[in-house]
Amino acid sequence: MNKFYLTKIITSVIVMIIAIYPVYSQDKYKKGVILLKDGNAIISEYTNDKDTYFLRNEKKGKSFRSDEIHAIVSEEYYNKIKKSDVWKSSIDSLVYFDASASYQWQDQKTSEFEDLSFRIVKISLLLLTGFFYYQSNLANQQLQRSYSGINSNEANANFNRNYTNYQAFGLLSLLTFSYTTYRAYIRFGTNENMESLDIPNRNLMNLEEFFNRQGSSQYNYKNNLILTFERSF
After folding, report:
1. 62: which strand partners?
2. Eight-state DSSP code of residue 221
3. Three-class secondary structure of residue 40 per DSSP
């Protein structure tokens, strides 16, 4: 009796593993835009094993060597670069007080942190510049009201101090905004190493369209041996 129940339990566990395994195996595949070094851009599900990338659709798949691929980006990023240009990236940096880090392909958290950091710095510099400008005006008015020889030295020192701070923070603000605007211009459509991804000059296609362009001899009708156990078609 015990052996019967034990066998039944083991059988149930095996069935559950077989049923659940394909779900986990699908997680090995991601969806993105594969930028090939030959200038093509393919939107597809993909997975990789060492130096090989495998792309697939519902019926077919194809393997690529890693040295054939320039980069893999998200569809959202690809469309953003396609619909924008270097000038919009630069203007956004000015308008939104950030570094336009989202126009460069890198880790999303890194982009968000960089934009937030520069936004805080820019706003702080502008506030400090405005504050010392206001203080300079007040000090100038006090200096004009002061009588010669009566508190004039103190008023003059107060004006010079605030005016110097106003100039310093004004210059820092100008340099910071200039730097981020220039950087937004040159980083547009690049990877984290500042290498151009050439997205504006690429045409996006799905895997089926790529097959049609390359010819039927390029098809792989099922996963290669390395990936057979990850998911079958």
Report:
1. 55
2. -
3. coil
Q: At which residue do the structure tokens 């006090």 appear?
A: 142
Residue linked to tokens 């936004």:
119
Cα angle at 65 between 64 and 66, to 5 degrees? Answer: 115
pLDDT for position 146: 72
Task: Report how far residue 37's alpha carbon sits from residue 59's, in angstroms, rounded to the nearest whole number.
Answer: 25
Strands 204-206 and 41-49: parallel
Check pLDDT > 70 for residue 149.
no
Residues 51-77, mean pLDDT to the nearest whole number: 92
- Phi/psi region, residue 49 (left: phi>0; alpha: psi -120 to 50; beta: rest), is beta
CA 106/CA 190 separation, integer angstroms:
9
CA distances from 190 to 30, 73, 145, 183, 186 (A): 21, 11, 58, 11, 8
* More confidently predicted of 199 and 149: 199
The Cα 200–Cα 121 span in angstroms is 32
Q: By three-state DSSP, how is residue 97 classified?
A: coil
Return the DSSP state at 196: B
Tokens of 18: 């077989």
* CA 171 and chain centroid, separation: 30
Query: Contact at 8 Å (CB) between 72 and 35?
Result: yes
